[in-house]
Design goal:
InterPro entries: P-loop_NTPase, T6A_TsaE. By secondary structure, the protein is α/β, with parallel strands linked by helices. It has one domain (11-157): Rossmann fold, CATH 3.40.50.300. The chain has helices at 20-30, 50-60, 104-110, 152-157, and strands at residues 11-17, 39-43, 75-80, 83-89, 112-116, 130-136, 142-148. Strands 1-7-6-2-5-4-3 form a 7-stranded mixed sheet, sandwiched between helices. Helix 3 (104-110) links the parallel strand 4 (83-89) and strand 5. Helix 1 (20-30) packs across helix 2. The chain is globular, with a radius of gyration of 14 Å. The two termini are 23 Å apart. Mean pLDDT is 89; it is low at 1-7.
């Protein structure tokens, strides 16, 4: 569950994702809104679609090579048409102190970061960010709750259904 942040007016929208194609289309709609210094926090249980969402975002940014899950590498950096994007999977980290070893702050300074298991960042999770919480529904599809904090609130409002 996303950690509380000190902004007063986050923008929140819930979107049904009945299939993978809808998930990838949502990622493609959001990707052009990202900017250097942005954190996109992907929340959800195992199998909720975090990596697939990240792949959709990267494809929309022009990545044509294979997009592996960064579970074992912890981070996969990409040079994209939209600028540098680093895809982090922090599942194996013990806590916020371990994030220094994977270059999170440098990646955030240089470009956009997509972060699976952002809870591992603890207090280091940027307050200004886009939270995407993916959950499975009983019918086999997914649901995404998007919450824009800080500057993301206005950007997210432009793509809300």
């Amino acid at each position: 569950m996303p950690s509380p942040v000190p902004d007063s007016d986050p923008f929140r929208v819930t979107i049904a994702l009945p299939d993978l194609d809808r998930t990838l289309r949502l990622a493609a709609r959001l990707a052009p809104l990202g900017r250097a210094g942005d954190c996109v926090a992907l929340w959800g249980d195992l199998g909720a679609g975090k990596t697939e969402f990240a792949r959709g975002w990267l494809r929309a940014a022009g990545v044509t090579e294979e997009v592996p899950s960064p579970t074992f590498a912890l981070v996969q950096p990409y040079e994209t048409a939209l600028g540098p994007i680093s895809h982090f999977d922090l599942y194996r980290l013990e806590g916020p102190g371990d994030v220094d070893e994977v270059g999170f702050e440098a990646a955030l300074d240089e470009g956009l970061v997509l972060v699976e298991w952002p809870d591992r960042l603890g207090h280091r999770l940027p307050a200004e960010r886009l939270d995407i919480e993916l959950t499975l529904d009983p019918a086999g599809g997914r649901q995404a709750v998007l919450t824009g904090h800080g500057g993301w609130a206005a950007r997210l409002a432009t793509v809300a259904p």
